[in-house]
Every structure is written in structure tokens, then in C-alpha cells.
Design brief:
By secondary structure, the protein is mostly helical. Helices cover 83% and strands 0% of the residues.
């Protein structure tokens, strides 16, 4: 009997191609996110409360490259391992946890940016160190708990429901935070236009608002890119699960019959969708470098210092 979501039915050429792409993703994700973690931890100026969420994201992406991808590649490389249901269950468990942690971190980044813009002066009081640690812990604990619920109830109903509710909450937090950020940015820009048109406006006040508007705009772009990339890369695997669930309902097949007769096309779609979703782990380091000037400067300082040390 085949395992759920096993890649065993794939042809040999398909296995080789997917192994190549997943190996490249694993190497790039590991290199990129190790570099991100090193830069953040080596520069005290980057160890802010807001950046704790980016470090958590980098750790999640690093685990994709060092834990999840090797499990996936091993199943492509060996039919025996592809038929090993324990290994397959471990990969599915890891996938669910890391995807949930990433989605939760995306929601936290969006919420934190909203708090930072709406409560600029009192941000440190509102987002204390303990609160930040608890929020990050929740984004890791909830996916783990939800995944263990797979072993409760019939046909994974409890597990599927918990994953759906968790994803719905995280998406809602992200969307509401994003809309709120957009409103703050628009309000600041409208205020600038009004004050510029007023003869009594002080130039210093206008300059302050202009700088705040530019900063808010950069924050909006940063959050937009991170959120957009995540949903673009996660979209194919979401479509797969929708098609798989719809097929079961329409055909009125239970889980056991699907395991006995796996659909080769669905297995191929699943494998490609999983590969695309894991490729998101190599995108975030690029976003940090090109969209966060302080991170870019710190990365260059770190590289320069390492080059100087190597020459000596």
C-alpha cells in the first residue's frame, strides 16, 4: 500500500529533474539563510524587536534547506525510501510545521509593522521583549500541535479543520494589518499635501512628515513583497490540496482506496507544487538585502571584516 502523498510512482527522469532542482534549492536556502542569521547576530544594531521576526523567518527557511529538502530529495533518489511510510510521515509533519511557522511569522511581521507605524513613540512599551518572545513561540507551537491532531479522529478531519482555522486566522491578521498600514501611509501623505498647501506650515514640520511618509512607504513595500512572495509560492500546493479534496468528494473515494491506487498525475502535481513552495526559502534573504538598507550595510561591513581577517 502506497503512503499518502508518496513520490514513489514518479518516473526515473522526473525523479532526476526534481532532485536537481530541490538540491539547488537546499543549497541556496542553506547558504542564504545562514548568512542572514550570521549578519543579524553579528551586528548589535540589527538585534531589534522587529528583526526578531525576520530571524525567526530565516530559521524557518534554514530548516527547509537543511531538514525538509534532504527528506524530499532522499525520496526522489530511492524508491525504497519513497515507499517508507515512516519517512514520508516525517516529511509531511515537517512540511506542515514549517509552513505553519512561516505563515504565522508572516502575520507577525505584518502586525508588528502596523504597531510600529501606529504607535511609533510607544512601540517599545507596547511590544515588550516578553510579548515578542511569546508571539514567536506561538507561531511555532500551534503548527506542531495542529499536526499532532492528525492522529485524533477519523480521516484526519480534526487535523484538517485545525490547519484550516489556523491558516484562516493568520491570513486574516496579515490582511487586516496590511490594510491598516496602507491607511496610515495614505493618511500621512494626505497630511503632507494639506500642510504643503498651507502658507503657515513650517518647513521643518513638512520635512519631518515627508521623511515619515518615505519610511512608511518603504515599510509598506517591504511587507508587500514578503507577503506576496509567500502566497505566490504557496499557491500551487494550495491548488493541489483543493483539487485532491474535490476529487475525493466527487468520486466518493475514501483514503484507503486512494492509497491503493495513487494517481500519477496528482503525484507529479504534488511534487512540483512542493518544490515551488520550498523555493520561497531562497527568496527572503534577497528581499532583506535589497529592501532593508540597514541590513545591506551590515552585510557589507561583515563581509569586509571577514575579508580583512582572512588577509591577516
Amino acid at each position: 500500500m502506497a503512503c499518502v502523498n508518496s513520490v514513489e510512482p514518479l518516473t526515473e527522469p522526473t525523479r532526476i529533474i526534481l532532485s536537481f532542482f530541490n538540491t539547488a534549492i537546499a543549497l541556496l536556502a542553506t547558504l542564504g539563510n545562514v548568512s542572514v542569521c550570521y549578519v543579524f547576530l553579528s551586528n548589535r544594531s540589527l538585534r531589534t524587536r522587529s528583526n526578531c521576526y525576520l530571524i525567526s523567518m530565516a530559521i524557518t527557511d534554514l530548516l527547509v534547506g537543511t531538514v525538509l529538502e534532504p527528506l524530499f530529495i532522499a525520496q526522489f533518489a530511492s524508491k525504497d525510501l519513497a515507499q517508507n511510510c515512516n519517512l514520508n510521515a516525517t516529511r509531511r509533519f515537517t512540511t506542515a510545521v514549517l509552513t505553519g511557522a512561516t505563515m504565522g511569522t508572516i502575520a507577525l511581521i505584518s502586525y508588528d509593522r502596523f504597531v510600529h507605524l501606529s504607535k511609533t513613540v510607544h512601540y517599545n512599551n507596547y511590544m515588550g521583549k516578553t510579548k515578542v518572545a511569546v508571539l514567536i513561540g506561538i507561531t511555532w507551537v500551534l503548527p506542531i500541535v495542529s499536526t499532532f491532531l492528525r492522529y485524533i479522529g477519523d480521516k484526519e478531519i480534526v487535523y484538517s479543520a485545525s490547519i484550516f482555522v489556523y491558516a484562516l486566522i493568520m491570513v486574516a491578521v496579515t490582511v487586516v494589518s496590511y490594510i491598516s498600514i496602507f491607511k496610515i501611509v495614505r493618511k500621512t501623505r494626505n497630511q503632507i499635501r494639506k500642510e504643503v498647501s498651507s502658507d503657515v506650515t513650517e518647513q521643518r514640520q513638512t520635512g519631518r512628515l515627508q521623511r515619515k511618509s518615505n519610511t512608511d512607504g518603504k515599510v509598506l513595500k517591504m511587507v508587500s513583497i514578503v507577503v506576496a512572495c509567500f502566497f505566490i509560492f504557496i499557491f500551487p500546493i494550495s491548488i493541489f490540496h483543493f483539487i485532491a479534496a474535490s476529487s475525493k468528494l466527487l468520486a466518493k473515494k475514501d483514503v484507503a482506496s486512494n492509497q491503493d491506487q495513487p494517481d500519477n498525475q496528482m503525484v507529479l502535481l504534488y511534487s512540483i507544487a512542493m518544490t515551488i513552495s520550498m523555493a520561497n526559502s531562497i527568496v527572503n534573504p534577497c528581499i532583506y538585502y535589497f529592501r532593508l538598507p540597514e541590513f545591506r550595510r551590515a552585510a557589507r561591513r561583515t563581509l569586509d571584516s571577514r575579508l580583512v581577517d582572512s588577509r591577516h
